[in-house]
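Q: what does this look like with NG6 bound?
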Amino acid sequence: MRNSSIGVLSFALACGTAYAQTDKQQLPNVIFIYADDLGYGDLECYGARNVETPNVNRLADNGIRFTNGYAAAATSTPSRYSLLTGEYAWRRNDTGIARGDAGMIVRPEQYTIADMFKSAGYTTAAFGKWHLGLGAETGKQDWNAPLPAGLGDLGFDYSYIMAATADRVPCVFIENGKVANYDPSAPIYVSYEKNFPGEPTGKDNPELLYNLKPSHGHDQSIVNGISRIGYMKGGGKALWKDENIADSITAHAVAYLHEHRNERFFMYFATNDIHVPRFPHERFRGKNKMGLRGEAIMQFDWSVGQILSTLDELGLTENTLIILSSDNGPVVDDGYQDRAVELLNGHTPAGDLRGGKYSTFEGGTRVPVIVHWPARIKQPQVSDVLVSQIDWLASLASLTGARIPKGSAFDSFDRLGNLLGTDSTDRPWVVEHAANNTLSIRTKEWKYIEPNDDSRKIQKNTNTELGNSPTPQLYDMTVPGERENVAAKYPEKVFELEGILRKVKNKKN
Ligand code: NG6
Ligand code: CA
């Protein structure tokens, strides 16, 4: 038993190296298009009903669309942490959903995927949702001065980001560590402890919520007629308008492409869509029968289209590697009265998967993954090979020839061949990390969910099936839907998978 799991580990580490060494001259630009809360079933090419996503279709039609692609975790912060560092977020206990005033979670000295690209000669940039903390210490930032720790310490040459999520203060963009459009007449103060005297809140001043009202939580400071999580004061001209968030992020990314057209670049393009509060631009309003959630998907697709048409215009499409994915699975009511539940009209955001955002079930972490690189991927395909975002760092290091410092990114395996469609061998297993820190391990055929003492079957407010159980669960993954727990029937499988998971947990760098 012991030996077989060691075998599995070393196999995974060795796999893919044969694809290394793309000629330096021909190294592609790389863009991650990273959606927020976009479910496995939310795109037209993944079977979505009621919404068209033509720009994403274009990527899928000319690239590889994966049906077994995974985010490392079922919520944003741990998922992004794992993607950017190549280390499982659950190895640390401070990587859960971050507040808007969290200190920087990835340590400045830690190796990131941006460092990897920089060392390979790329210019690097991040746009949009960050949600991994900024500044030296939680709650201690001075938002009116340059932040002492930020993306520049993590290998990004340029950044234009939201500190956390649109439902968390501070509601401003941050450009290279400073509030963008800073308004000296309205200094910014943020607290996750208490309100600032005289400032309205969603709880006390519901009459001021002219854009969206909360359905649960989200009843603290009001910005743009929408109440948020956390308290803030000031901001003035720097405050965002939710209806312009996609435009701002996209415009900055498009400008960056123009400016860096003659350099080799890595762009992390992390959209706010389709996270709550869903409040897309007027031009999408009333355009989808699912209402705001459907319109947010349309807006996401529009952003993808802007990136693609800019690459076309600049003649860069052919040699740009685009990987499109999502940070976690879908949720319908995530805290605002946006009528998303009642307007689904038969649409299933997680496709045929059980659970959603937050879950141990597949809906939590199995997400759309599409790889597009016309110069190298000549044969469009739908692939059922197991792939995980945890491997992007090592796989792309293998592509660029970058050397990963010893001990860094040590959960990331070189699976480049999987991503480029030249190797259809499955990753031997994928680890899934639920919001309550329960881990699962999935092979092509089986999934084991470790027992946990969280007694909730359903997360009440979001109506999510969490997949918790005090006893081990085992599902036959050749049967969709994780319906029948067969742990009692196949104890030796439970034992084997539990052993692999233990070994991964105990791995030392
Ligand atoms: C939850 C929020 C939810 C969302 C989530 C993080 C409430 C009631 N719910 O705590 O709205 O913000 O955190 O989402 O506050 S994530 O995609 O960024 O992980
Ligand atoms: Ca998310």
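The radius of gyration is 22 Å. Residues 333 and 462 are 5 Å apart (CA to CA).
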